[in-house]
Design goal:
Length: 164
């Protein structure tokens, strides 16, 4: 009787170990790990140009952003003293007779155009740090534009520094 109990116990132990090994092998084969995929960045598609992409809202305070900023599915992007680095695409001088305002259009490194309102309090600098007039900023200049977003959603330049 004792031999039968020892044999039954040994059989149960071996069977349970075999079941554990089979389950472990099944788990490893059901959830494979692809090392080559873990080392590559995922394809972001249309979102690839975004430097900052948030869900419900994005707030940029004293930020330098090179690339697009956006939210999805939210709608709120708040810029408080942000800086964009880019190339001047166009400069418009104010013409009170036509009702136009002074504006600089800059293309950033992600090839996105942004328009900035130039107001009386906007400070304009050359590469040496000297104050200049808007007429000295021309298409092709590389610039750093420090700006704020007004309550109306308009980008208002605080300062523009020509770097090249």
């Amino acid at each position: 009787m004792r031999n039968l109990m020892v044999r039954t116990h040994a059989f149960t132990m071996l069977t349970s170990r075999l079941v554990v090994m089979v389950l472990f092998a099944a788990l490893l084969s059901a959830a494979p790990f692809y090392a080559e995929q873990a080392q590559n960045t995922p394809n972001l598609g249309a979102a690839a140009s975004f430097a900052v992409l948030g869900g419900s809202a994005v707030t940029l305070t004293d930020s330098i952003v090179t690339g697009d900023v956006g939210v999805y599915p939210g709608t709120t992007v708040t810029n408080t003293r942000s800086t964009i680095i880019g190339t001047v695409d166009s400069v418009t001088m104010a013409d009170p007779a036509k009702g136009t305002k002074s504006e600089i259009v800059v293309v950033n490194k992600a090839n996105t155009k942004m328009s900035f309102l130039v107001v009386a309090t906007t400070t304009l600098y050359n590469a040496k740090g000297e104050t200049i007039g808007l007429d000295k900023i021309v298409k092709g200049n590389e610039v750093n534009v420090e700006y704020e977003t007004t309550a109306e959603g308009v980008y208002e330049a605080v300062s523009v520094k020509v770097t090249k």
